Amino acid sequence: MSTDHNGESNADQPAQTHDNAAEDVIAVSSDNSHEGLVNRLDAHTGDGIRHRAFTCLVFDSTGHLLLAQRAPTKRLWDTHWDGTVASHPTEEQTQREATRQRLDDELGVTPDQYDTLRVTDQFEYKRYYENAGIEWEVCAVLQVTLDDITLDPDESEIAGLLWVEYEHLHEHPEWYRQLRLCPWFEIAMRRDFQQ
């Protein structure tokens, strides 16, 4: 696992109240060992608290990646493009279970639309976002290929969708700069092509 840190502290910035601020996330060590539950807002403000997360890259049968634009109501990385969903598992969920739930909740994608949901990587990163907060996560990367690309996106989660040629996006990131990609997705994509 690698560690990727960048940015400056925003410890003196006030935290905004958000719908999911009362939820908990799983605090973890650098090797992803469970260290207890912490408040989600506390984990994402000040200097942050390292916690467990995941991102899932969704492909079609021709190898195109589905980018999802985060809703403008998101507290962190609002309107940035993710590849494709990202979140935090609860204490009762495995990474796969949490990913299945997010695929359904955010995109309306159900398990009958794909065969295998595979964990392909894990990395740690830390990024500050404007004056709004921080991500400090041990992030699992999952990938899935849809047999049926029917989507029913939840507008409170996703503002836009875009299928892109994955290899082209990786080889020519400058052509996609206007999309403002989420940092965890950029790391996951870079590491995917290094393997």
TrEMBL record:
<feature type="domain" description="Nudix hydrolase">
    <location>
        <begin position="49"/>
        <end position="187"/>
    </location>
</feature>
<keyword id="KW-0413">Isomerase</keyword>
<dbReference type="InterPro" id="IPR011876">
    <property type="entry name" value="IsopentenylPP_isomerase_typ1"/>
</dbReference>
<dbReference type="GO" id="GO:0004452">
    <property type="term" value="F:isopentenyl-diphosphate delta-isomerase activity"/>
</dbReference>
<comment type="pathway">
    <text>Isoprenoid biosynthesis; dimethylallyl diphosphate biosynthesis; dimethylallyl diphosphate from isopentenyl diphosphate: step 1/1.</text>
</comment>
<dbReference type="GO" id="GO:0050992">
    <property type="term" value="P:dimethylallyl diphosphate biosynthetic process"/>
</dbReference>
<dbReference type="InterPro" id="IPR000086">
    <property type="entry name" value="NUDIX_hydrolase_dom"/>
</dbReference>
<dbReference type="GO" id="GO:0005737">
    <property type="term" value="C:cytoplasm"/>
</dbReference>
<dbReference type="GO" id="GO:0009240">
    <property type="term" value="P:isopentenyl diphosphate biosynthetic process"/>
</dbReference>
<protein>
    <recommendedName>
        <fullName>isopentenyl-diphosphate Delta-isomerase</fullName>
        <ecNumber>5.3.3.2</ecNumber>
    </recommendedName>
</protein>
<dbReference type="Pfam" id="PF00293">
    <property type="entry name" value="NUDIX"/>
</dbReference>
<keyword id="KW-0414">Isoprene biosynthesis</keyword>
<comment type="similarity">
    <text>Belongs to the IPP isomerase type 1 family.</text>
</comment>
<dbReference type="InterPro" id="IPR015797">
    <property type="entry name" value="NUDIX_hydrolase-like_dom_sf"/>
</dbReference>
